[in-house]
Q: What sequence folds into this?
């Protein structure tokens, strides 16, 4: 018996030429879409974490009292906003509820929001995948 590896083998190799390029052309857009989604998800997750921490820090600062001349008074709205912007960045929208007499046991809240822009947001929205346009968090704490 004779094995034929001559012209049959060459013909088989020629018929598979370019298959890898076609497979890459088919799968590459899907891989790019997945990578873009991961980047945008990571970006949103990072800002959610940062906004939550900024809200907590602002509320913690809001319920503390400053002592001057023997009297204890709560920090005002401007001082709290300045503190959050100094520690977490000026691109955050900070809202502080008004002070209610500053008595021990009363609650204060601080809301921090971040308007979001995504790398691939408009593309994903066009596919029907909505992304949040604002990430926000509100924290309530009780006066000390």
A:
């Amino acid at each position: 018996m004779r094995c034929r590896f001559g012209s049959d083998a060459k013909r088989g190799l020629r018929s598979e030429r370019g298959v890898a390029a076609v497979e890459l052309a088919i799968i590459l857009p899907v891989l790019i879409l997945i990578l873009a989604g991961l980047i945008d998800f990571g970006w949103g997750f990072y800002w959610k974490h940062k906004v939550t921490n900024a809200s907590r820090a602002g509320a913690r600062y809001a319920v503390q009292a400053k002592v001057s001349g023997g009297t204890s008074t709560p920090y005002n709205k401007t001082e709290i906003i300045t503190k959050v912007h100094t520690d977490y960045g000026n691109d955050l929208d900070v809202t502080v509820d008004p002070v209610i007499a500053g008595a021990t046991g009363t609650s204060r809240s601080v809301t921090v929001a971040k308007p979001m822009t995504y790398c691939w947001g408009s593309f994903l929205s066009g596919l029907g995948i909505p992304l949040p346009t604002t990430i926000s968090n509100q924290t309530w704490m009780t006066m000390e």
Remarks:
- Residues 13 and 23 are 17 Å apart (CA to CA).
